[in-house]
Amino acid sequence: MLKRLIKAARREEKAELVLKNSTYIDVFSGKLQRGDIAIVGGRIAGVGSYEGVEEIDCSRYTVLPGFIDGHVHIESSQLSPEEFASLVVPRGTTSVIADPHEITNVCGIAGCEYIATASKNVPLDVYLQLPSCVPATPFETSGAILSGKDVAHNIKNEYVFGLGEFMNYPGVVNCDPDVLEKLAAAHAAGKIIDGHAPSLKGYELNAYLCGGISTDHECVTQAEVEEKISKGMYVEIRHGSSTKNLGNARYMTQENSRRFILCTDDRHAVDLKEKGHIDDALRHMVCDYGVDPVTAVRCATLNAAECYGLKWRGGVAPFYIADLVAVDDLKNFNAQLVIKDGKVVARDGKPLFDTSVRYLPGAVLNTVRLKRPLTADDFRLALKGGRAKVMTLETGGIITGCEAAEVRSQKGDVDIKGTDILKLAVVERHKLTGNIGKGLLKGYGFKGGAMGLTVSHDSHNIILLGDDNAAMAAAANALRETGGGMAIAETGGGVHTVALDIGGLMSSRSAAEHIRASRALSEKAYAMGVKSGYDAFMSLAFLSLAVIPELKLLDAGLFDVGTFSFTDIEV
User: Fold this and answer.
1) Where in the chain are the domains?
2) How would you list the strands of the sheet with 462-466, edge to edge?
3) CA-CA distance, 479 to 498, in Å (whole number)?
4) By the 8 A CB rule, do 446 and 531 touch?
5) Alpha carbon distance 431, 426 (integer Å)
6) What mean pLDDT value characterizes the chain?
7) What are the Cα distances from residue 62, in Å, to 36, 291, 330, 337, 338?
8) Does the pLDDT of residue 397 top 80, yes or no?
9) Are 461 and 469 in contact (CB under 8 A)?
10) CATH number listed for the domain at residues 2-60
């Protein structure tokens, strides 16, 4: 291959494929350049004046390196890896740094192996990060536990690229022995470690970074962005469905721009289909925040490649891997042509590869286990007094607050009629413990029954909200019957579900089928009052995430993230 590549570079032989008359972004010099891009054996032979066995006229396009998503949970798309690829590759994404944290919390190492194996079927490089925090905290019941010894054993697997986001930042800064064993194992294996450290600063941040952690996608303020960059981190600008911090693009300067990369973290199938992936992040950075297009593209390509040590990726240059996307312009970033390893894999936003045959092992099926069928009485919430802690949720985010509210009780149960308060419950679904955590949520808007799903970060127990105990029980029981998914139970009416049969997180159906069904269920949730500022189901899924402030609900009870301990609902 080297001989063929060199000969083609010198124009002694025709290239296999040439993108003729290309205008392309030179991410190294920051300039727009022109020339024919010659490709041989999946690599770029050179840019200049070339002839090819196959030639594609790109005079109407701008050619960019293939996009790299710096941090994503494929499971959050609710699609199989094959169907996920069918949506993101036609958008120009050719590589993702994937943390299978969600399915590993449900299925253990079998979940990692599933993502790794299924991803081999598609033209998308999936660099798998071994989840570092399974469970995310020791206070919740997950389907699996990865100890320091488990990480040390599995980090050596060939399919493992690095160690996933280290959410247990208190464990790092307080030198928890199990945490240190995980970090040391990653370093011994020569693997990169991703970070997750919201609001960490000063000496605590210094201590966290002494774990050898490279990235963070949780920055909120300019001061946080600047401190983390100054201390050697890469800051990931996130463009997910429920979690977005694209506004951090405002803090990008000529001096610090090489330390920003792009990621989506959690992005639902509907958004991938209708709005896009990394291409959509670029669109908003340029159009909404005025970022120079070349700088924005660098964040999605070369910066990410350098951050993760992806050698010979992220640029248009000789010997670089021929992962390329031709877009209509540097404002809309609509992908017209996508090339992966030198092969055309998508045109005009449509995949040219088959995903109809999907890998589906038994280890990731039938994962919703309840000790017994639930009844209305399981969702009674008895309070001694008249004041309770009520969770609040910011629109467009996952940070929750806590308010003290006056609540009525009647016959041993809170009475929420005529209020903007709903019952919230987390039902354990892995170990048959029978645990049901109960709380109250203000401001979601839903009325007339219950809604719930088996996607609840990070242990993915069943999370429910509603104003009717019987409907909450009906929704939970329906989720057990479907093997996981999303459900709405109407008061005195029917139960409507969308199955997520892979780990209770992902659908084995095609992207089109799942999008159609999930859109219909979300529309029903909005019709029943969910406020437009929330993603109907995915915002609910984050209310049990015990590593994001302030108040969260776990299967074992109400949790104060600030004190990292359980708290009584009574005020």
Assistant:
1) 2-60, 70-300+353-361, 365-566
2) 400-406, 387-393, 436-442, 421-427, 462-466, 449-453, 485-490, 495-499
3) 9
4) no
5) 14
6) 96
7) 12, 18, 8, 10, 12
8) no
9) no
10) 2.30.40.10
User: What DSSP letter does each residue of 367-389 carry, written as one string?
Assistant: ----SS---GGGG----SSSEEE
User: Residue 395 has what pLDDT?
Assistant: 77
96 - beta bridge partners? 69, 126
319 vs 42: CA distance, rounded Å: 9
On the question of pLDDT at 526 being above 80, the answer is: yes
Tokens of 562: 């600030």
Residue 136 has a pLDDT of: 84
Is 168 in contact with 183 (CB distance < 8 Å)? no
Task: State the DSSP code for 331.
Answer: T
At position 279, the amino acid (one-letter code) is D
- List, in order, residues 6 or more apart from 191 with CB less than 8 Å away: 130, 155, 160, 161, 162, 163
Alpha helices in 164-277 (DSSP H): 169-173, 177-188, 202-209, 222-230, 269-274
Overall average pLDDT of the 187-198 stretch: 95
Rounded to 10 deg, the angle between the 278-289 and 293-300 helix axes is 150
> Quick one: CA dihedral 460, 465, 469, 475, positive or negative?
negative
Structure tokens of 318?
A: 């000789």
Fold adopted by 70-300+353-361: TIM Barrel (3.20.20)
Quote the CA–CA distance of 443 and 465 in Å, as a whole number.
12
User: How many Å apart are CA 283 and CA 449, to the nearest integer?
Assistant: 39
**527: its two tokens:** 């019709």
State residue 243's pLDDT score: 80
pLDDT of residue 137: 85
Helices (H), 246-375: 269-274, 278-289, 293-300, 302-307
Q: What percent of the chain has pLDDT over 70?
A: 100
For the chain, what is the radius of gyration of the CA atoms?
A: 24
Question: What is the band of 398 on the pLDDT scale with cuts at 50, 70, 90?
Answer: confident
50-80 pLDDT per residue, tens:
999 999 999 999 999 999 999 999 999 999 9
Residues 262-274 have pLDDT tens digits of 999 999 999 999 9
Q: Give the C-alpha separation, 368 to 364, whole Å.
A: 11
Over the stretch 289-328, which tens digit does the pLDDT of each residue have? Answer: 999 999 999 999 999 999 999 999 999 999 999 999 999 9
Tell me what the mean pLDDT of segment 501-509 comes to.
Answer: 97
DSSP class per residue in 468-526: -HHHHHHHHHHHHHHTSEEEEEETTS-EEEEE-TBTTTBBSS-HHHHHHHHHHHHHHHH
Residue holding tokens 């996920």? Answer: 84
- Under the banding of pLDDT at 50, 70 and 90, the label for residue 161 is very high
| 443 secondary structure, DSSP code | S
Q: Which residues pair with 487 in a beta bridge?
A: 452, 497
